[in-house]
């Protein structure tokens, strides 16, 4: 496989998803309010979400054995989030119940255009427990994480390396102050995802193949930039790819990038080459926007195959 990542050939799990799941409180609005404004909306039933959790569910639904590592409150909301994982086949043996806590929560306002605005309230306190994480990583081929806490991420990186796992990260603009910090993260992962908005915010320019390739000099084997309705780009040593998006009617963009990432990882882990994995992931993203909620339209293999065959 071109630009192959280094991960073990076979372990009990393909993917270890490092991050807390989120309780999503969903509202539909004509447009999200600005400061000191009020708008009318409609509340939808609560949903399970969270970037890492959505990726875990997407990968598990695509037949990749996936283990969740995270925390939920020891209450009804926590049980709701645990069951939501299990419905997609994600193993929750490493999902800890925390007494007296409130599960991570997101207030999501979905505009008529399908775009969204949100407020996120994480669970306080440390997520990582070194012994339990090391034991979990030893059973997995790849770790997927979001490096918001750099000190914690350095530990995740070291433990993943000690376990012989590949490490994939999803980078958002809020994590990175500029190119130097981006280079720091790229030096500590094998595969990095970001969307084009994040890329522009960090690099001060739109994604461009030569610039993406230059970033790989800092350590990562692969950089994938999702560009929404414009598709996605991939850079790897000696390789630059672009994949157009597939036609889609956007109902809700929540979780589309997570479906893309989960599908891309699933494709790589099952042995697809980079070009095929990028195409597979773009097809998955086009399906994910077709229903309200981050996991309401997580793509199955049958639906992805139909999109690819139609294209």
Q: Would you give an account of this structure?
A:
- The protein is built from 10 helices and 14 strands.
- By secondary structure, it is of the alpha/beta class.
- It has a 9-stranded mixed β-sheet with strand order 6-5-1-9-10-11-12-13-14, with helices on both faces.
Summarize the structure.
With 311 residues, the protein is an alpha/beta fold.
Break the fold down into its secondary structure elements and pairings:
Blueprint: E1 13-18, E2 22-29, E3 41-43, E4 47-49, H1 51-61, E5 66-73, H2 76-87, E6 91-98, E7 105-111, E8 116-121, H3 130-137, E9 140-145, H4 150-163, E10 166-170, H5 179-186, E11 191-195, H6 196-203, H7 209-215, E12 222-226, E13 232-236, E14 239-243, H8 256-269, H9 274-288, H10 301-310
Parallel strand pairs: 1-5, 1-9, 2-7, 5-6, 9-10, 10-11, 11-12
Antiparallel strand pairs: 2-3, 2-4, 7-8, 12-13, 13-14
Proportion of beta-strand residues: 25-35%
**SSE string, helices as H and strands as E:** EEEEHEHEEEHEHEHEHHEEEHHH
Mean of the pLDDT scores? 92
CATH class of the domain at 13-19 and 51-100 and 128-170 and 246-310: Alpha Beta
Low-confidence stretches: none
By helix and strand content, what is the structural category?
alpha/beta
CATH hierarchy: architecture of the domain at 13-19 and 51-100 and 128-170 and 246-310: 3-Layer(aba) Sandwich
Helix percentage range? 25-40%
Number of helices: 10
């Amino acid at each position: 496989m071109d630009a192959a990542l280094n991960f073990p050939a076979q372990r009990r799990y393909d993917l270890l998803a490092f991050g807390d799941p989120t309780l999503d409180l969903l509202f539909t609005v004509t447009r999200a309010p600005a400061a000191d404004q009020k708008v009318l909306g409609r509340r939808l039933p609560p949903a399970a979400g969270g970037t890492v959790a959505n990726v875990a569910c997407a990968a598990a639904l695509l037949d990749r054995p996936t283990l969740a590592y995270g925390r939920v409150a020891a209450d009804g909301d926590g049980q709701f989030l645990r069951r939501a994982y299990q419905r997609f086949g994600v193993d929750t043996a490493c999902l800890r119940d925390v007494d007296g806590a409130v599960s991570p929560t997101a207030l999501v306002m979905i505009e008529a255009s399908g775009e969204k605005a949100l407020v996120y309230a994480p669970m306080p306190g440390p997520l990582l427990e070194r012994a339990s994480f090391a034991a979990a990583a030893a059973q997995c081929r790849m770790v997927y994480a979001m490096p918001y806490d750099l000190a914690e991420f350095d530990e995740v990186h070291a433990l993943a390396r000690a376990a012989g796992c590949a490490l994939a990260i999803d980078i958002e603009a809020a994590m990175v102050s500029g190119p130097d910090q981006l280079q720091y993260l790229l030096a500590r992962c094998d595969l990095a995802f970001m969307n084009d908005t994040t890329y522009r915010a960090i690099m001060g320019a739109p994604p461009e193949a030569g610039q993406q390739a230059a970033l790989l000099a800092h350590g990562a084997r692969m950089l994938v930039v999702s560009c929404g309705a414009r598709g996605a780009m991939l850079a790897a040593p000696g390789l630059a790819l672009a994949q157009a998006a597939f036609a889609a009617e956007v109902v809700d963009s929540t979780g589309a990038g997570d479906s893309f990432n989960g599908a891309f990882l699933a494709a790589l882990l099952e042995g697809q080459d980079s070009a095929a994995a990028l195409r597979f992931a773009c097809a998955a993203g086009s399906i994910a926007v077709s229903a309200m909620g981050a996991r309401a339209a997580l793509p199955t293999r049958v639906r992805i195959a139909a999109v690819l065959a139609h294209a």
